[in-house]
Amino acid sequence: MKSFTILGLMGLVLGLAVAISALRNADDNWAGGLLLATALLIGVAALGAAYHSGRRRAGRLGFAVFAAGYFALAFLGLSDQNLAKLPTSWLLSYVHQRVVPPLTLAVTLTGSTPGQFGQGTILMSNVTPGPLANTVTTTTTSQLSVASGTGNGTSAHWKAILPGAANYEAFSVVGHCLFALLAGLLGMVIARRYQARQERALECDPVAAG
């Protein structure tokens, strides 16, 4: 029992280290690697459920069912529009916006002739940083001045903790893979509790056990 506890603790520490590293350095390599690893873990858990019994079988079956369920929702079942409605997607999007907040740009249009454009200021929000920042474009009929925007609520603290969140596509894949594994762990706990309850019920009723 002691060796199992030590091995379990080592596995937990290793898993947390991999998860933190994947979130901090999210890129296409991490995203692809975690996609494959998550699918493999679900398959291994399903095979373990088929070839074990008792609480081990219950735990592996619970992991496979919950992890596969979330994995299917995130990567196979839901459209992008419906996937964005999941609370886990909200959380990933929130973290991304803290690391790379939208910009607000002040744009001034000045017409070269009266009544052509007039004068005024247009505020544009939710603008992704791009090559237009800090540039001035002049044409024969108008002048477009783009003021340098600053991210609303930009936090260097968030960037220091999770720089990989800036790459939202890869960060989202990594995050959903980790949520699938967390769902699997939750399913394992629930299944083992059901199994323990059933074993206690059978101990209290030997006739039913036979």
Keywords:
single chain, 210 residues, alpha+beta, five-stranded antiparallel β-sheet, 13% strand
Summarize the structure.
By secondary structure, the chain is of the alpha+beta class. The chain has helices at 2-24, 28-51, 54-77, 80-83, 87-99, 156-161, 168-204, 206-209, and strands at 103-111, 119-127, 136-138, 142-146, 150-151. The protein folds into 2 domains: 2-96 and 159-209, no CATH class; 102-152, no CATH class.
Please give a structural write-up.
The chain is an alpha+beta fold. The chain has 2 domains: 2-96 and 159-209, no CATH class; 102-152, no CATH class. Helix content is 64%, strand content 13%. Strands 1, 2, 3, 4 and 5 form a 5-stranded antiparallel beta sheet that branches. It starts with a helix and ends with a helix.
Write the layout of secondary structure elements.
Layout: H1 2-24, H2 28-51, H3 54-77, H4 80-83, H5 87-99, E1 103-111, E2 119-127, E3 136-138, E4 142-146, E5 150-151, H6 156-161, H7 168-204, H8 206-209
Antiparallel strand pairs: 1-2, 1-4, 1-5, 3-4
Helix pairs in contact: 2-3, 2-7, 3-7, 5-7
- Parts with pLDDT < 50 across at least 5 consecutive residues: 117-153
- The number of helical segments is 8
Question: Per the principal axes of the C-alpha atoms, what is the gross shape?
Answer: elongated
Number of domains: 2
**Average pLDDT over all residues:** 77
In terms of structural class, how would the helical and strand content be classed?
A: alpha+beta
Q: Approximately what portion of the residues adopt beta-strand conformation?
A: 5-15%
Helix percent reads 55-70%
The radius of gyration is 26 Å
User: Biggest sheet: strands, sense, closure?
Assistant: 5 strands, antiparallel
| H-E string | HHHHHEEEEEHHH
Quote the distance from N terminus to C terminus: 29 Å
Number of beta strands: 5
